[in-house]
Amino acid sequence: MWVSRLAAAAGHDVTALVRPERASRLPAGVRVLQGSALDERDVARALERQDVVISCLGAQRTQPWNPWAPLRPPGQVAELSARAMVAVVPGTSVRRVVVISAAGVGESLTRTNATMRWMLRHSTVGEMYADLERMEGVLRASTLQWVAVRPVTLVNSAPSERTKLLSRYRMLSVVGRADVAAWLLSTAVDSGVGDRTPMIGGW
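Given the sequence above, the corresponding structure tokens read:
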């Protein structure tokens, strides 16, 4: 919810497409639509009169704290949401799509630490990353102007000014969720696009 909170605080006209059980957690001033980001009709409704899309979707485990727990269906949520956006966005006023991916996806795997590479091979974290990689592939094959931000390990922390581009995903690399949200927002409203898959971290 950090993206909606920061965007609303900055004075942007924000529409949030959320599952019904999450609607009450959004800040005042945000237009709330209940629906599915995998449904092209719901996505089209959410994009009316909007300039950018920020997607924070990703596969989830049945037990979030357990990296070996099975994924909640559908396991390909990131890929399916990207396909919905690719189908809908060209017919709207949206000029940029910014999505959250993960450090270690795609070619950035070679820049991760050994523990992370082991987790990708032996837990459902690997399935989640495979979904993100397919999502990036869908966007890469499209005509959309897009950026997939790849944060390192996420932690809960107060907003800070410490987020930066990283060349390596080290054992102790972390970044606050609020800081990732701020990066997503700044990328969405920036007039230019540099790296389409930036790896970011804090401290």
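The first helix runs from residue 2 to 9. Try to locate this feature in the token string yourself.
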